[in-house]
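2024-03-11 09:14:02 INFO receiving multi-entity request
2024-03-11 09:14:02 INFO entity count = two
2024-03-11 09:14:03 INFO echoing inputs for audit
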Amino acid sequence: MIETTLDTVCRIGKVAFKNPVVMASGTFGFGKEYGKLYDLSKLGGISGKGVTLHPRPGNPGIRVYETPSGMLNSVGLENPGIRAFLDEECAFWERLDTVRIVNLGGGTVQDYVEGARLIDEDSTVREREGRQAVDMIELNISCPNVKAGGMAYGIKTSVAREVVREVRAATSLPLMVKLSPNAEDIADMAQMCEEEGAEAVSLINTLSGMKIDVRRRRSVFDNLYAGLSGPAVKPVALRMVHQVCKRVGIPVVGMGGISCAEDIIEFIMAGAEAVQVGTYNFVNWQAGAELAAGVERFMAEEGIRSLDEIRGIL
Amino acid sequence: MATIISNRRVAEGIYVMHAKGRFEAKAGQFFMVRGWENYPLLSRPLSVYDQDEQGVKFLYKVAGEGTERLARMKAGDEVTLLGPLGNGFPAVHGRTALVGGGIGIAPLYYTARQLEQADLYLGFSAEVYEEHEFRSLRHPVEIDLGGIVLDRVDFDAYDTIFVCGPEPMLRAAQMKSAMSSGRANVYVSLENRMACGIGACLVCSVGCENGRKKACSDGPVFRAEEVVLA
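2024-03-11 09:21:47 INFO inference complete, emitting structure
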């Protein structure tokens, strides 16, 4: 038998992921909990729970509702704030042998910028001391823009451009922008990110959805709308990833409803450099490790030595 | 995977599942349970009703698609269990009362089984179930059908009180506790909707006196006065 080594490495700029499986923000905490269940070094990377400059309590009321092949969530960016993240979680991140991505949210452009600066300064100190904890920033532009009447930054390209530009200027860490499927034109949005100097884009964030309790005659969620994720959104996500890959030259990280290795292969064939896995962590707590192994199994079965052979073939 | 030893109906929409396996669950802890592959997506959090040499028991109520599927499962079928999770009830001292409303009686059986002394107060709205099992523990048991079980409990007569039941009952317990002499340490066990069950996703987060806590990994048992129930 001839020993062949499979090349599963994915790259965003100088950052190398050992495989395409990255855990999606908001479903994986900062990794500690799942780290007790399996070895996180089996993962390509993790994107931590979204953090904002100031701590946020999140939304009141019911926060999750299961729908056919999907789930709606309304967590509302509950997080301890960037300072607490850097002080309390990064010691754990220092020791992780996987790509560590900070997911950054905000309320005003100033919040985003100040947040990015804090992360960047902390990172500079750590780098000097040889104890890096953060490899990349994932910028979440789906947050409500207070100035624009609460409409998310991620809807209009012209509104999002300012945030991307300012955050880009505030950090030298690799920057990936997470795009919303609720954007007016997601390919335009991606192109704007490329023009503004982002190293990558990731998509899709959750689709805005709704659930009405017909007996009580009101929305299940205090916040009225909630974000849909899970297998129900996968076809939409795949189409959008394909469209974005056709438009931009920077790496695209695809996500939306991934539940098996074949789903990952689909995203890579659509042009994605790597993928993120979110809701499926709740279906299968060993999702990350199993999917990473599943990709290798698929490659071996199909005689694929490197993901480059199939990336963007459509 | 755990093999189901038995899964029997004990009242309208109420079942007891016995699943095989060696667990070291503490009273008041729970498992994330699923009896299917990918759909429904989420596992169902069920608290430990009892534990023996053969495995773990769940007393559960059919409330939706997931529990409906669990109810249809038979001996020999397989369920996936993640757990035991959460912290369970704290160690008790002095005179103890265990108060359950409806399916909220589930975590109290295994708790009572481990206590030297406990007075049990069990409230039901339509039909009494598992009365025989609770009585076999040889603790005093008061049953309330159709009324308000909390009205039967003198909070000043106890040092520790555990309450598990629907949210209005937990709120009533908070009020009662606040108006009592303060002798009893009162604890409530929450049954929030959960997704991960291990503290990563924050969908079960509850407001507490010192900020947010997670019902799954910080709870599901909290001091009555520390949680803010909506």
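2024-03-11 09:21:48 INFO post-check: The interface with chain A takes residues 38-43, 65, 82, 193-196, 198-205, 207, 211-212, 217, 230 of chain B (CB under 8 Å).
2024-03-11 09:21:48 INFO post-check: The two ends of chain B are 37 Å apart (CA to CA).
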